[in-house]
Specification:
Blueprint: E1 20-27, H1 31-39, E2 51-56, E3 67-74, E4 77-89, E5 93-98, E6 106-115, E7 118-127, H2 138-167
Antiparallel strand pairs: 1-7, 2-3, 3-4, 4-5, 5-6, 6-7
Length: 178
């Protein structure tokens, strides 16, 4: 390779749209009830293995355009995120963008569809733009996507279990409730 030829930067060849997933679970509650649980962002710590101390901005709530902050942790690191709700439709969808609608980095989507006596909950994650804070190589971003998919699966399973225990407390497991 000639010393005048610029080495290729692998980050430049990555496409944010390639990093996305959807996970789903059935829960024993109506779509509007599940929406109410998910749109209460302060309750996410009940189900998510990564998020704590989530709260809407003062005088804000689960409405399109509203902002909230939350603390996250992974691999021994902690950070705070600011997110903006881009869709808040009771019983149908709750969607927010980490970093805000205008310049966000990740979109989290929760959608709710009735099935039988319960709801199919879909949780989707989509990288909107590349940012070195998330990683700079294909391996970094694949690992992040895999980690987030595992986290979503854990969150959905915990949500389904929590709903089942709240709905049928006589059969609840002996774990403490938040």
């Amino acid at each position: 390779m000639s010393s005048t030829t610029r080495e290729h930067d692998p980050f430049e060849t990555l496409n944010a749209a390639d990093f996305t997933f959807t996970r789903r679970a059935w829960v024993d509650a109506a779509p509007v009830q599940v929406y109410d649980l998910i749109s209460d962002v302060s309750a996410i710590h009940r189900w998510s293995p990564d998020a704590t101390d989530v709260a809407f901005d003062q005088d804000a709530g689960p409405l399109t355009g509203a902002w909230f902050s939350g603390r996250n942790h992974r691999n021994g690191k902690q950070w705070t995120t600011r997110s903006q709700i881009t869709r808040a439709e009771p019983g149908t969808a709750f969607i927010f963008v980490v970093g805000g609608a205008e310049d966000g980095i990740v979109r989290w989507s929760w959608t709710f569809a009735p099935q039988g006596r319960g709801t199919v909950v879909r949780q989707s994650w989509q990288l909107l733009r590349l940012d070195p804070v998330l990683g700079t190589t294909l391996g970094d971003l694949d690992a992040l996507s895999d980690y987030m998919a595992d986290s979503a699966e854990t969150t959905l399973a915990a949500l389904a279990q929590w709903i089942a225990e709240e709905r049928h407390p006589d059969t609840a497991l002996s774990r403490p409730r938040a």
